Amino acid sequence: MAAPALYRRVLLKVSGEALLGSQPFGIDEAVIDRIAREIGEAVALGVEVGLVVGGGNIFRGMSIAKAGGNRVAGDHMGMLATVMNAIGLHEGLERRGISSRIFSAVPMPTICETFSQQRAERALKRGRVAIFAGGTGNPFFTTDSGAALRAAEMGCDALFKGTNVDGVYSADPKKDPNAVRFDRVSYKEVLSLGLQVMDAAAVALARDNHIPLIVFSIKEPGAFVDVLRGHGRATIIADA
Ligand SMILES: Nc1ncnc2c1ncn2[C@@H]1O[C@H](COP(=O)(O)OP(=O)(O)OP(=O)(O)O)[C@@H](O)[C@H]1O
Ligand SMILES: O=c1ccn([C@@H]2O[C@H](COP(=O)(O)O)[C@@H](O)[C@H]2O)c(=O)[nH]1
C-alpha cells in the first residue's frame, strides 16, 4: 500500500517560471495539466491544498523598475500576471474534475472571488483546492510572501515551494557549480547566510508562525506527492 501523506493541509507555491514549460513566454498547457494531475493525487490522499502561483512566466515588477520605470505600476502588472496563471491552473484542475476556487487579493469580482479567510476555509474543508491569486495584494512583495501569509492565515502544516531547483543550496546552484545542497537547514541559517531561494520576508513570516518550508523541484514529475509522503527530494527549512 502507498505511504499516506504526512500533512493534513498544505500551501503549494508553484513558480510562475515553471509554467513556461518549453516555451519562452506564457503558459504551457501540458505543464498545467501535469501539475493539476499531481494536485488531484494529493487531494485523493486526503490532503487539503491551498495554491499560490507566481507570475515570473509573464511579468515581474522589477523588470520595469530596472529599466527606470515605476515599480508600483510594475508590481500591479506582476500581480495581474499571477491572476492569469491562477485562471490557467483553475481551468486545468476543473478539466480534470478537481473542484477549485480562485480567491484574489486584488478585488476583480467579475473574474473571481475576492479573498476571504472564512470562505477559503470553507472551500478547503470541503476538499476544494483554494487558489490564492494576486500575491499579498500589495506592491514591493512577491508571491513567496503571499504564500507564507496565506499559509499562516489558513493554518497550513507546511508551505511547499515548487520551483526550478531541487532544494536549498549553499549558493545559487545556477551560478556556482560547487554549491552544496542541504537536506535540512534552519530559518536562521537561510536568513543569516542570505540564501536567495525564497525572499527573506517569506522566510521570516514562516519562522514566526512555525511553518516548515519545503523546497522541491516542481519540474520533476511526481515530486510533489513524493515529498508529501516524506520520501521525495527536497530541502526542509525549519527550526534548528
Ligand atoms: N541558495 C540557493 N539555493 C537554491 N536556489 C537558489 C539559491 N539562491 C538563489 N537561488 C535561485 O532561486 C531561484 C528560485 O527562486 P525564484 O524566486 O527566482 O523563483 P520562483 O519564486 O520559483 O519563481 P517565480 O518568480 O517565477 O514564481 C532558483 O532559480 C535558484 O537559481
Ligand atoms: O504580493 C505581491 C506578489 C507579487 N507582486 C508582483 O508580481 C510579480 C510576480 O510575482 P513573483 O513572486 O515574482 O512570481 C512580482 O515580481 C511583483 O512584481 C507584488 O507586487 N506583490
UniProtKB/TrEMBL annotation:
<feature type="binding site">
    <location>
        <position position="172"/>
    </location>
    <ligand>
        <name>ATP</name>
    </ligand>
</feature>
<dbReference type="InterPro" id="IPR036393">
    <property type="entry name" value="AceGlu_kinase-like_sf"/>
</dbReference>
<dbReference type="Pfam" id="PF00696">
    <property type="entry name" value="AA_kinase"/>
</dbReference>
<comment type="function">
    <text>Catalyzes the reversible phosphorylation of UMP to UDP.</text>
</comment>
<keyword id="KW-0547">Nucleotide-binding</keyword>
<keyword id="KW-0963">Cytoplasm</keyword>
<dbReference type="InterPro" id="IPR011817">
    <property type="entry name" value="Uridylate_kinase"/>
</dbReference>
<feature type="binding site">
    <location>
        <position position="169"/>
    </location>
    <ligand>
        <name>ATP</name>
    </ligand>
</feature>
<keyword id="KW-0808">Transferase</keyword>
<dbReference type="GO" id="GO:0033862">
    <property type="term" value="F:UMP kinase activity"/>
</dbReference>
<dbReference type="InterPro" id="IPR015963">
    <property type="entry name" value="Uridylate_kinase_bac"/>
</dbReference>
<dbReference type="InterPro" id="IPR001048">
    <property type="entry name" value="Asp/Glu/Uridylate_kinase"/>
</dbReference>
<feature type="binding site">
    <location>
        <position position="60"/>
    </location>
    <ligand>
        <name>ATP</name>
    </ligand>
</feature>
<feature type="binding site">
    <location>
        <position position="163"/>
    </location>
    <ligand>
        <name>ATP</name>
    </ligand>
</feature>
<keyword id="KW-0418">Kinase</keyword>
<dbReference type="GO" id="GO:0044210">
    <property type="term" value="P:'de novo' CTP biosynthetic process"/>
</dbReference>
<keyword id="KW-0067">ATP-binding</keyword>
<feature type="binding site">
    <location>
        <position position="75"/>
    </location>
    <ligand>
        <name>UMP</name>
    </ligand>
</feature>
<protein>
    <recommendedName>
        <fullName>Uridylate kinase</fullName>
        <ecNumber>2.7.4.22</ecNumber>
    </recommendedName>
</protein>
<feature type="binding site">
    <location>
        <begin position="136"/>
        <end position="143"/>
    </location>
    <ligand>
        <name>UMP</name>
    </ligand>
</feature>
<feature type="binding site">
    <location>
        <position position="164"/>
    </location>
    <ligand>
        <name>ATP</name>
    </ligand>
</feature>
<comment type="pathway">
    <text>Pyrimidine metabolism; CTP biosynthesis via de novo pathway; UDP from UMP (UMPK route): step 1/1.</text>
</comment>
<dbReference type="GO" id="GO:0006225">
    <property type="term" value="P:UDP biosynthetic process"/>
</dbReference>
<dbReference type="GO" id="GO:0005829">
    <property type="term" value="C:cytosol"/>
</dbReference>
<dbReference type="GO" id="GO:0005524">
    <property type="term" value="F:ATP binding"/>
</dbReference>
<comment type="similarity">
    <text>Belongs to the UMP kinase family.</text>
</comment>
<feature type="domain" description="Aspartate/glutamate/uridylate kinase">
    <location>
        <begin position="9"/>
        <end position="217"/>
    </location>
</feature>
<feature type="binding site">
    <location>
        <position position="55"/>
    </location>
    <ligand>
        <name>UMP</name>
    </ligand>
</feature>
<comment type="subunit">
    <text>Homohexamer.</text>
</comment>
<feature type="binding site">
    <location>
        <position position="56"/>
    </location>
    <ligand>
        <name>ATP</name>
    </ligand>
</feature>
<feature type="binding site">
    <location>
        <begin position="13"/>
        <end position="16"/>
    </location>
    <ligand>
        <name>ATP</name>
    </ligand>
</feature>
<keyword id="KW-0665">Pyrimidine biosynthesis</keyword>
